[in-house]
Amino acid sequence: MSRLLVTGGAGFIGANFVRRVLATSGDSVTVVDALTYAGNRANLDGLPADRFSFVQADICERDTVFDLAGQADAIVHFAAESHNDNSLRDPSPFIHTNLVGTFTLLEAARHHRVRFHQVSTDEVYGDLPLDTPERFTPTSPYRPSSPYSATKAGADHLVRAWVRSFGVAATISNCSNNYGPFQHVEKFIPRQITNILTGRRPKLYGTGTNVRDWIHVDDHNAAVQTILDHGRIGQTYLIGADGQADNKTVIETILTLMGRPADAYDLVDDRPGHDRRYAIDATKLRTELGWAPTHPDFRTGLAATIDWYTRHQGWWRPQKDAIEAGYATRGQ
User: Fold this and answer.
1) Which of 128, 172, 203, 215 could form a disulfide with 118 if both were Cys (CB 3.0 to 4.6 A apart)?
2) What gap in Å lies between CA 8 and CA 305, rounded to an integer?
3) Half-sphere exposure of 9 (CA within 13 A, CB side)
4) All domains of the chain, ordered by start, with CATH?
5) Known catalytic residue at 107
6) How far apart are CA 115 and CA 283, in angstroms?
7) Among residues 125, 148, 205, 278, which one is catalytic?
8) How high is the pLDDT of residue 275?
9) Of residues 33, 58, 122, 252, which has the active-site annotation?
10) Is 134 a catalytic residue?
11) Is the pTM of this model over 0.90?
12) % of residues, the chain, pLDDT over 70
């Protein structure tokens, strides 16, 4: 049995990871989360008190982080400011959490000789042309295009430096776009689902030709568990489920699955610097560690996600109006 310190464990991917660990292993988990707007303590309701604890704190708080790391066997670092639009309006929280926070955690891992896993994004690699078969690999050059992706790229570089310079036992994973339960309603898929459920029209940036490589959050977290247990120290693993789809297809599929006309959405101005395409080559993860997705069909996963948001309206409705009001002021 291991003792895991999970940062950002009240957020979308982190909360699903915590639930998975407690359901599939005998490990105990301590979550540290600042509970900013994207963190929700309710995401962790009902977890076993004998194997789960929660600490509300900023990961830049050195004394707290060092104390918690000293009680753990491994740190799994999900905590991040992660919304591109927000990073374009104010990059400062991204510098604070994604860079200073990661530095603080790495120093704690170094001091206590604790295993460390960095959960990162494919956005650090920039974007790919729409008309080529090219995909990101672990050796793809870093070309971040937003303050968000730049800070995640910087955090990845810090991890590599701490492995080489100080011998920290760390791994990195870069994952494609996640979807599934507990995702904040500002994100693309839940925003469209909840727009329909509240009588609003879905919104599509530009012409919707931008392509994302979608993966169910449970598959992402299964991969993180596998890397944590079996990954080679100092290595980077890319996590993807071959789920490429352009945003127009995604929004039209959601509308169709919810019984609406496929064209019942509005076009809004494109986001500045909007990346064209992401695509992951997960060959290394699949062949070296034996991981494979259990939700390979994107349409089926979307249907299950729609069902979750339909059944859990009490979870997202309190924040929905404020989120849409913010988008409206920006014409989005």
Assistant:
1) 172
2) 22
3) 25
4) 3-179+214-239 (3.40.50.720)
5) no
6) 24
7) 148
8) 87
9) 122
10) no
11) yes
12) 100
Distance (Å, rounded) from C-alpha 313 to C-alpha 304?
A: 15
Q: Which residues are within 8 A (CB) of 290 and not within 5 positions of it... i.e. 6 or more apart? A: 226
Encoded tokens for 217: 């959050």
Q: Report the alpha-carbon distance of residue 172 to residue 156 in Å, rounded.
A: 7
Is residue 228's pLDDT more than 90? Answer: yes
Which position among 33, 123, 219, 324 bears the catalytic label? 123
**H helices present in the chain, as ranges:** 12-24, 62-69, 84-89, 92-94, 102-112, 147-166, 188-197, 217-230, 247-257, 283-289, 298-311, 313-329
Fill in the amino acid letter for 267: L
Active site annotation includes 125: no
Q: Residue 249 carries which side chain, given as an amino acid letter? A: T
The model's pLDDT over 52-62, given as tens digits with 9 standing for 90+, comes to: 999 999 999 99
Listed residue (181, 253, 177) closest to 212, CA to CA: 177
Average pLDDT over residues 30-50: 94
